[in-house]
Amino acid sequence: MTQNQEKLAWYExxxxxxxxxxxxxxxxxxxxxxxxxxxxxxREYYQRANRLANALKRAGIKRGDRVAFVCRNFPAxxxxxxxxxxxxxxxxxINYRLSEAELTDIINLxxxxxxxxxSFVADLVNPKNLPAVETYVNILEGQRYYGEPPKARLPxxxxxxxxxxxxxxxIGIMPQDENDLIAIDYTSGTTGTPKGCMYTHRGVYLQxxxxxxxxxxxxxxxxLWTLPMFHCNGWCWAWATAVVGATNVCMRAPDxxxxxxxxxxxxxxxxxxPPLIFQRLNQxxxxxxxxxxxxxxxxxxxxxxxxxxxLVDMERKGAEIRHCYGLTEVYGPFTICEWQPxxxxxxxxxxxxxxxxxxxxxxxxxxLRIVDPEGNDVPRDGETxxxxxxxxxxxxxxxxxxxxxxxRAYRDGWFYTGDGGVMHPDGYIExxxxxxxxxxxxxxxxxxxxxxxxxxxxxxVKEVVCYGxxxxxxxxxxxxxxxxxxxxxxxxxxxxxxxxxxxxxxKCPKYVEFGEIPRTSTxxxxxxxxRRKERQNSPDRTDASR
Length: 546
Prior knowledge:
The protein is α/β, with parallel strands linked by helices. The protein has 18 helices and 26 strands. The N and C termini lie far apart (63 Å).
């Protein structure tokens, strides 16, 4: 966009910064952020973000520079989502649960000049290995709110000291083009290699509108941060709450008991996250004999197809599950299982079947198809599995400084997700698995999710994942890794027999193992680690029920 275009009466570039400017003027006294006993109004939130931007500018940050945060769900991270772009820079929110080597790699890949680090994980940051980082800022909010002693202290100021160096003068650095970068988000590692997805001001602006519309959020809403803020910038909720002036309630970890406590204390109306979080909340409520949520609760569920048993239980307790699907490459949610009024008259079991689907593109996202290996659309029969591809406003600009990855994923004007799904006759998609994770046994396609939903019905099963392992006769067969409920001791043969009573036999697991399921910090199963383990151990695999 040129300077002349900036002055046109009929055009203004799209940026989520405008949401903060507006809400601070329109509803300055409404509560913006709550963290334990501390509260900020939207006026105060804007003032702090503006001060942070001025402090960054004073520290030498220029337009386009990267500023990284490694932080739990604390107010400092929220302030960074507005303060960094207000300084003209690009925010890089990094998963604080990574190893030292992984953190080092991502910080160096991003080229961040300033690094804000939660003292809880500061021991994983070694300045000697970070040549591009010029300034470190220590975030001590764990100590401030919970009395945690810092694990380490990096050479630099504390967050509040750094903030105090910024003036209150309105900084007003706007993007030169709405397609300028606002954030770089690194993928969560289900395939082993994180890639930096580039988010634009325009893309975030539109995604925020989608979130508000699709999840019925208003100024009366209270959003509980059960989702990590680093994950796709909290699926863009870090900016979206400013559209209407909803309240953000911070929590350092999504423990089920703390979630339940905050739902009651703050009258929480909205939460987001992977099925794992809500599955554990549901189990907690069952253990405590809690039958219902105290008020209407809208749950933004994504990151993996949910277990049907969890979805049924949460709906019966009064939660309103709004099922969606997306990736880091698409600003978080891209689809929504848009509810049709005529479905409300269906039997409950049929309604749940509809809710299990990932749905259609959301109102601002763009287009979606499911294609075969030749790029042709699969039949709309709800059975033929193909790869999900997407295009439109909801797709990130590409991977940061990764031309080979871009060439693989962005082809012919479409983004290829690598996810496998089916298209139903009404145009709603249903995910089945990562496209490469569909198990092909004796020429038959087996979807791990279907087997998992069967096993979740077993009374002793807490969590389960199913995946394919090599087999000389069938090519692949199903193996399951099961985490039993506390106090139970099921056997592998019991699980196999349970499945054989309920599924076609070729879909049933041949091998069952018990243990913890490897997941990313956002709840996604790392099947590549399980397959890698199988390749190492396959010569010794003999027991079908171990």
